[in-house]
Amino acid sequence: MTWTEIDLAYLAGFVDGEGSITIFRSGGRDHLRFDVYNTNQDILLWIKGVFGGRVHKIRTRDGWKSEYVWQIGHQQAANILVSCLPYLKVKRLQAEIFISHAATSVGRVGKSIPADIVPIRKALVTEIQRLNKRGSL
After folding, report:
1. Contact assessment for residue 14 and residue 50, using Cβ atoms and an 8 Å cutoff
2. φ and ψ at 16, to 5 degrees?
3. What is the pTM of this model?
4. Based on the number of CB atoms within 10 Å of its own CB, is 13 exposed (0-12), middle (13-18) or buried (19 or more)?
């Protein structure tokens, strides 16, 4: 897919401000998540139209606006993040870690992870969690 520089820069701004780039362990495996949250569903539908993925409502509190999230699969997310790297400011390191981790799973669907890749993945997960930790580093 070919995206315009304006599309990539605009998405990068949303990712820096309203996005989440993370990796977490659950059920003995790593889960890569790339999401953008907003109360304006139209902008997330625009992102979906340009980059793919899906948009869904995640919560509505009494007296609050509805909140929506745009999500996309981790391999597609890695491709998008590679293209957005020149424009990311706040979450550039998280994007680089996400891309590195996603590269270790290319062609591995249903296959075990080689023993030499396991410590690399563990280090990437630890580093992205450190970067995403709330409060002081």
Report:
1. no
2. -60, -40
3. 0.89
4. middle
